[in-house]
Automatic annotation (TrEMBL), chains A, B, C, D:
Protein name per its UniProtKB record: Threonine dehydrogenase and related Zn-dependent dehydrogenase
Tagged with keyword Cell cycle: no
This enzyme's EC code(s): 1.1.1.14
UniProt xrefs under CDD domains: MDR_TM0436_like
Molecular function (Gene Ontology), one example: L-iditol 2-dehydrogenase (NAD+) activity
Keywords: Oxidoreductase
Length: 372, 372, 372, 372
C-alpha cells in the first residue's frame, strides 16, 4: 500500500478489478454552493464492495474510492444547507447521507414506472463515481456531498458506530421486509445470517413478526443467536423444512426472505413458505448463476408471491435510522455495534475486504480517521 | 358409448384415467331442504377436464361426472332458497353457481392465511365428487346443488350461451388480472390465446389496459385477432421481445400473464416484463415439468413480482358475471359466444374432449339437453 | 342481587336497559356434537357492556348473559372437536374463542363486499343471544360453545389473566392499527387511554411505530405512562397540536387513532394528522351525537384518509393472541395484567360495571368461579 | 379589455382578485438551455380559475397569466430536450406538459411522506407564477416551459382539442378513481356532472365500474346522459338514496366520488355508500364552509373509508393521456370534444370565465391563437 506524502485528505482507491486498494492523498475540495464537506468517522465494507473488487458489478468507472455508506462530522458547507427534515446543517454536526443521488425525477422510470432505483441518471457514492471526480466515496478521510445529496442528522441516541453497524444492510432490510408485507404475527424465515440477513431479522422483529434465521456458518449462526433470534442450524441438517416445522409445531413461514446470494437457496427457500405466502429475493446482488424451478408446484399451485428487491430509496434509509433509535433494537437486547462489527483503520482496508470476502467477520467497519 | 335405458336423467361418467366417457341414467334426486335441482342448459369442457381424463390431477375420486361450470333452469327447490344477492330462487329461473363449495370457514387456511382456495374441506363440482354421490357434475341432464352452494341468477342481458362461453376461464381471468394489479394505462401481454388467455385479455381490457396476446397457433391467434386484440405472432418469430418492442416503440410490459401451461413460457415471459413490473402465472394447473431461472437477472435486479394464481373465490365469479353483462365485451365488439364456442350435444362429449385436447376448437360447450 | 339456589351453573343476567344485573342458576347444558362446554376462568367488562346496560346498542335480545370475551378450561366436548389450528380440544385444556360466529359465508356481505362484520346472520356471544337460548355469554360459571365457534388454545406463555387483560380491546386494536396501515417508523397518536387506546398503543408499538397517547383523565394517563408510552397530557392543556409538535420537534402524526367515543375528538384528532396521513375511527361504537367537519380543510386539501373500523374477524383475534405471547409486550416491560386490570368475583358484577362506567378502573375482569 | 400594440406574444393577465382579465403583449422569451417555447393551441378555463379570479385560492402571486393546462406546437427549444419517454422534442411537434413542476425531491414531503403534491417548493403553471416572471400560464399565445417541466407528445390519435376537452379534469379524475380503488364490477356514483365529475365517470367506466352520475342541473345531466351514463336526476327528487336503490335493485354504491364542492354533498354522498365502501372527496378545492357528520353512523359503524384527493402527479397525467387514446372513450361513443366543449378566442376570456362561473357551459376552451 503506497501512501503519498502531501497534506490533503487520504482516500483508498481501487484502480480496477482484482487490484489491491491503495491510499492516495487528494486535494482538499473546494466546497461549492449547496455542498457539504464531511470529516469521515466511519464507513463500511459490504458484500457489494467485494463484488466490485472482483469485477462482478457492471458499469463501475474504475478507478473509484469505494465505500457507499458513511457517517461523519461536518467540516464545511457551501452556504446554507438543510437536511431532509429542514434542519440547518452546521459545522460540527454529525450527519449521514443516502449514497444514491442524481435520480432525474423526470424520466419514465422515475415518473411513470415509479422505479427510481432504475433511473438511468442515478449515481451512487462509492460505486458509480470515478475517483477522478473527487472524494465521492466513503473510504476516505473526507467526503464531498454534492448539492443534491439527501443529508440527515443522526438522532441523539444513535451513535455513529451503531449507525455504521447497521450500515447499508439496514435500509436494504427495510426494503425487503416492506416488499414482503411482513406484519404482526407473521412467521418469517430469513435465509442467511450475514449483515443483510441479520438486519432483515431485526426489521421483521420490529414489524411484529416471529423471526427464524437459517444459515450453515457457525460464526454467523452464533451472531444470530447472540442477537436473540431463533435459528435453523443448517450445519447439522440440510433439511430446513423439517427444522422449521419442528420449531413451529408443523407450520411453515408466511414470509421467507432470501439473503444468501446463492442460487440453490431459491428452491429450498420456496419450500419453507406456506401456501399463499411470500418469498422475497434480496441477496442476489450479483449474478451467481441459474437454478431450477417448477412453475406448477413452486408458483401456481402454491399461490406464491415472489418479490425481487433492488436498491433502496430515501424512505428506507429514513426508516432504518428511525429504527436504530429504538431502545431495545435486538430480541436479546445485545447492541448490534457490540455483536456485529469489527473495526479497521483506513490503512487496513485490504484486510477488511479479505476478511469480509472470507466471511471471517460479520461486518467490517472502516475508521477513516483513526488518528482522531 | 353405452347408454342405459331407464327414465332418470342422463349423465356422462368418467370411470378412470384414460377411459372414455360413457353415458348413464341416474335416479332423479330427492331434493332436500336448501337444495336446488337444475335442468342443465350448458356445461363446458376446459383444460382441467382434459387433465382429469389423462389422470394428471391429484385426488380425483373416479368415477366422476365431469363439468364444473354449468348453467340451467331451476327444476325444483327444497323449500325457500335464496341467491347470494338474497333474491328467491324459483322454479324456471335461469341460474348458475360457483363450482367450489364446502370450504369450512374455520380452519387455518380459511381464517388465518385467508387462502380458502387451500382449505382441505373444499369441494368442487365435476372434480372432487364421485358420481356415486349423485348428480354433482355439469355433464349431465340434471345437477343437484347442495345447500351450501352459492347460486346466482344470470343478469337479463347475459344469455346462457354467453355465460358458458366465458365459463370457468372468466373468473380465473378475473383472479389473474387482480393478482397482477392491472390498472388504467398498463401494457399487458398475455401468453397464450386459449380460453383463459382470451378471457384474461378481455378482463385486462376492461381494467383499462392495452392488451397484446402472444401465441404461435394460427387458430388461436385468429381468435385473438377476431376479438380485437393486438397479437404477438410467435408462429413467424420466436423473439417475443422484439415483437413487443416493435409494437410499443421500445417499451416492455407492465404486466405479463402466463396462460400456456408450458414451462418454457416462464423465462420468455419474464423477459417481456419491464423493470419493477409483474409476472402472473395462471396457466400451470398441472405439473408440466421444471424450468430454469436466474435469480439475479430475472428477479432481484429486475425488482420483479411473480404471482401464482390458484383457484377462484366467489368474488371472482361474481365479477366475471358482472363483466359479461357489459354491452361491448370485446375490443372488436364481436360476441364471445360467436367467436369462441363450438357446441356439442351430451352424447358427443368424447369428441368435445378430444377436440379441446388437440386444440381444434377454442372452447367446447356441452348442450346437456339437446332435445330441448 | 338475587341468587337462586339450585345446583346448576350460575350466570349473570341483564333483563333490560337500565336494570341491575342479577345472578341465576341455569341447568347444566347437554353438550351436542361439535360443541364444547367451558368452565369459565375469566370474562371482562368492556365499554360495550356499559352501552348494552344503558340500552344504547340496537338489537340486543334482552334478557341476555353479557360478557363477550372469556377464557376457561374445557369441561366437556361433544365428540372430537378441533381448534382452528387443527389441534384436538380435550377436557382440561385452557382455551378461548372468538365471540363472533354464525356468519353465513354465502351472502352479499360475506362473499361480494368481503365485510363479514356486516353479515346479517352474524351472532356475538354476550351480545346477540338471549339468555333463553342458554349459557351463551361470558359472565357465567359455564359457557356453551356452539359447533361453529372458532376455538383456540392459549399459547404456553400467555396466562389466562394476561389474555383477559387484553380482552376484546386487543383484537379491536389490531384491526384499528391494520386499518391505519401503521408501519415501521410511523408517528402514531392514540386519542384516549382506555383499554382500546392502550391496546392500540401496544399494537402500534409492535408494528414499529413511535406512539404517543393523549387523554385528560389522570388515572388513564398514569396507566399509559406506566406501560411506557409518551403521553400528551390534555388535563393541563387542551392544545393537543402544540403538545404533539413540542414532543416531535414540529412534526405531526402519520396516523391518529381515535379511541374515545367523543364526537369532539374528531376535529381535534384530524388536526394532529400530517398532510396525506391517516385518521382511524374505532371508539365510536355507539351514537354519541354529531360533529362538524370542513371538507376542504379537513379532508380534501389535507389529502386525508379517514377509516372507520367496525368489529373484528378471526384474523385479528389470532394476531392479538400471538402478540400477547411476546416477551416484552409493553414499552416499559410492565405486564398489562399487572398495570391494567382490577378483578371482581361474579357476584360483584354490578360494581364492576359501575366502576367501568365511572372510569374508576381501566379494565374490570370478572372471575367467574371465584371459589376455585 | 386593453390590448397593447407591440409585436410580442399576447397574454391574458389577471391583476388581482375581482379584476377583469386584460390582454398584454410580452417580449418574446429568450429560450435557455433545456427550455421549450410553445406556440399555444388550446388552453382551458377550469373551476380553479374561477376561484383564483374570486380570490378564493391562497398564495396566488397576482398579477398572473392564468391557464394551467395547455397544448401547443414547439416553436423553439434550448438545445436538445427530451420528453418523459425519452423522445426528442423538435420544432413543430405537438406537445403538452404537466403544470406542476419544481417539486424539490429532497424534502420531508417528497422523500418521507411521499406526498409531492404537498412539497413547499412546488410550482404550478398558471397558478403560482407571477406574470412578471414571464409567459408561465396557458392563456397566452406562447408559453415558456422551464427546464424541469415534464413534457410529452400527444399520441397520434389524441387531437389537441380532445386533449383539452379532458384538460385538468382528466388527471384529477384518474387520481380520484385511484384513491377510491375503483375496480371491475364496482358500482360507482359520481356526485356532480361538471368536468371533473364527467371525467371521473369516464375513468371509472374504463376501470370496469358501472357508473351513475348525480346532479340537479339540467345542462349537466344532459351532458352526462349524452356521454352514455346512467343518471340520478336530483332536479326531480332530492332523495338520491331511493333513486340509487331503484336503479340498482336495492344496492348501494361500492364507491361514491364527490365532485361538487358543496359541503352539503358530504352527508348525502356518504348515505349512498354501502357498508365497508369508500367515499372520495375531490371537489372541495376551495373552502365552501363546514358540514355535520355523525362519527358513529357515518364512519365507524359503516366501516367507511373517506379519501381526500389533492393535486395530481405526473403518473395521473400520463394515464389520462393514455386513456384519451382509447377508441371508445365514452359509454355512448360520443366524443368528449363534441359533447363537452365550448371554444372561445383569447380576447373573449372574460366571457369564458363568466360562462364557467355561471355554469352556462360544461367546459370552456381558450383558442390562444385564433387567427391561425
Amino acid at each position: 500500500m503506497v501512501v503519498t506524502n502531501n497534506s490533503g485528505p487520504l482516500a483508498a482507491v481501487l484502480t480496477g478489478p482484482g487490484e489491491p486498494i491503495t491510499l492516495h492523498n487528494f486535494a482538499k475540495p473546494n466546497v461549492k454552493r449547496g455542498e457539504v464537506l464531511l470529516h469521515t468517522m466511519y464507513s463500511e465494507v459490504c458484500g457489494t464492495d467485494v463484488h466490485i473488487q472482483q469485477g462482478k458489478l457492471a458499469g463501475v468507472p474504475y478507478p473509484i474510492i469505494p465505500g457507499h455508506f458513511a457517517v461523519g462530522t461536518v467540516e464545511e458547507t457551501g452556504g446554507d444547507v438543510q437536511s431532509v427534515s429542514g434542519r440547518p446543517i452546521i459545522r460540527g454536526d454529525i450527519v449521514t447521507f443516502l449514497d444514491v443521488h442524481a435520480t432525474c425525477h423526470r424520466c419514465w422510470q422515475c415518473q411513470v414506472n415509479k422505479a427510481p432505483t432504475k433511473c438511468p441518471s442515478r449515481k451512487v457514492y462509492g460505486v458509480s463515481h470515478s475517483s477522478n471526480e473527487g472524494l465521492l466515496g466513503g473510504w476516505s478521510e473526507m467526503i464531498l456531498l454534492q448539492n443534491d445529496v439527501a443529508i440527515t442528522h443522526l438522532p441523539e441516541n444513535v451513535s455513529p458506530l451503531r449507525f455504521i453497524a447497521g450500515g447499508c444492510a439496514m435500509p436494504t432490510a427495510v426494503h425487503a421486509v416492506e416488499r414482503g408485507k411482513v406484519g404482526l404475527g407473521d412467521i418469517v424465515v430469513v435465509q442467511g445470517a450475514g449483515p443483510v440477513g441479520l438486519c432483515t431479522g431485526i426489521v421483521a422483529y420490529h414489524s411484529g413478526a416471529r423471526v427464524l434465521i437459517a444459515d450453515k456458518s457457525t460464526v454467523r449462526l452464533e451472531a444470530a443467536h447472540t442477537l436473540g433470534f431463533e435459528v435453523l442450524d443448517l450445519s447439522t441438517s440440510d433439511n430446513a423444512q423439517s427444522l422449521l416445522e419442528y420449531a413451529t409445531q408443523g407450520q411453515r413461514a408466511d414470509v421467507v426472505i432470501e439473503a444468501t446470494g446463492s442460487p440453490s437457496a431459491i428452491q429450498s427457500g420456496i419450500s419453507l413458505v406456506r401456501d399463499a405466502g411470500r418469498y422475497v429475493v434480496v441477496g442476489h446482488y450479483s449474478d451467481a448463476g441459474s437454478t431450477t424451478i417448477n412453475p406448477h408446484l413452486d408458483i401456481n399451485k402454491k399461490h406464491l408471491e415472489i418479490l425481487g428487491t433492488w436498491g433502496v430509496e430515501y424512505i428506507h434509509f429514513h426508516k432504518a435510522i428511525g429504527l436504530l433509535a429504538r431502545k431495545e433494537l435486538t430480541p436479546s437486547g445485545i447492541k448490534i455495534e457490540d455483536a456485529m462489527t469489527t473495526i479497521y483503520p483506513l490503512h487496513e482496508v485490504n484486510k477488511a475486504l479479505s476478511d469480509v470476502r472470507e466471511r471471517r467477520v460479520v461486518k467490517a467497519v472502516i475508521c477513516a480517521n483513526s488518528g482522531d
